[in-house]
Amino acid sequence: MGLFNFIRKSKEEEKQTLDQGLEKTKTSLFQKITKSILGKSTVDDDVLDNLEETLITSDVGVETTLKIIDHLQERIKRDRYISTSELNSILRAEISQLLRKPAYDTEGLFPANFEAPMPKKPYVILVVGVNGVGKTTTIAKLAYRYKAAGRKVLLGAADTFRAAAVEQLMLWADRVEVPIVQQGMNADPASVAYDTLQSALAKDSDVVIIDTAGRLHNKVGLMNELTKIRKVMQKLVPDAPHEVLLVLDASTGQNAIEQARQFTQATDVNALALTKLDGTAKGGVIIGISDQFHIPVRYIGLGEKMTDLQLFNPDDFVDSLFD
After folding, report:
1. What predicted TM-score, i.e. pTM, was given to this entire model?
2. Are 279 and 253 spatial neighbours (Cβ–Cβ below 8 Å)?
């Protein structure tokens, strides 16, 4: 074994990592909520106004915040009275409902966890996202987690336009000890994707993870490039890619929502990864993104270690945020 010993965290260890990773978000959010109800015994218009500001400044997003406030107003109208002591449990239920959109009813579409049977073989993940969001390290962590689960993993370096992108992915492939297909900088990304799938079929790979160029300055160009990659892959694997994974940096807050909007308009994103949750108080952005785009958050990054990439579980997230 090389640099990494392939270990797996227990469920309890993963929950502890999640709790620690959300600490900044939790502290910020509940300090603001406490401030918004200070001196109040019931939820009135002033509390709702303060709560609205709290949620918006916690990067939940305007649209999603207004939805939560509307639901609270309906509850007050129905019950005629809500004490401030009930507010946390009501918010918990509202956020849990927003995170459990139909988008999460994905049984059979994605593997339930890293050890679960793969719905397709090879299972092809196409990774998109702007530079600097942690795309390359997310790919490395995914490769690590799948390899630790006993999968044969193959990487494809189709981000051929950014200086050092291919070299960075090659370095990670070497560290994680998984094979990689690359043609160097300025190669045709679609050609790299095709060669990667050819190699995957020849090697009987379980999981294929293909990196793509992370740029948004020309949405039409991005759309055309990703469409071309998809078409050439489907010559070999008709239903590829199975997962079009958009990587977003949670610490950028509302900018992450804007990136999600741009990329979902450019290509058929069906899964999201939120990185750098451990270093930010803006983890509330997950709530807004889940609500607005109805695309499941598949993975969350909670630290630098390879095992700190977790499959996102809405129930565990809400428990960590409110417990």
Report:
1. 0.90
2. no
Q: Which of 165, 125, 161, 166 lies closest to 143, judged by CA?
A: 125
- Output the six-digit token pair for 84: 């401030």
Please state, in angstroms and rounded to a whole number, the distance separating the CA atoms of residues 212 and 233. Answer: 13
Long-range contacts of 6-10 (CB under 8 A, 24+ apart): 6/144, 6/147, 6/148, 7/148, 7/307, 8/148, 8/149, 8/307, 9/307
Residue of 303, 305, 209, 323 lying closest to 3 (CA atoms):
305
**pLDDT above 70 covers what percent of the chain?**
93
Smallest Cα–Cα separation from 98: which of 293, 310, 321? 293
Range with the largest mean pLDDT of 42-46, 153-157, 182-186, 308-312: 153-157
Closest CA to 47 of 57, 56, 34, 66: 34
pLDDT at 107: 62
Closest CA to 313 of 301, 293, 298: 298
Tens-place pLDDT, residues 247-268: 999 999 889 998 898 888 888 8
129 contact partners, CB below 8 Å, separation of at least 6: 135, 214, 246, 247, 248, 259, 263
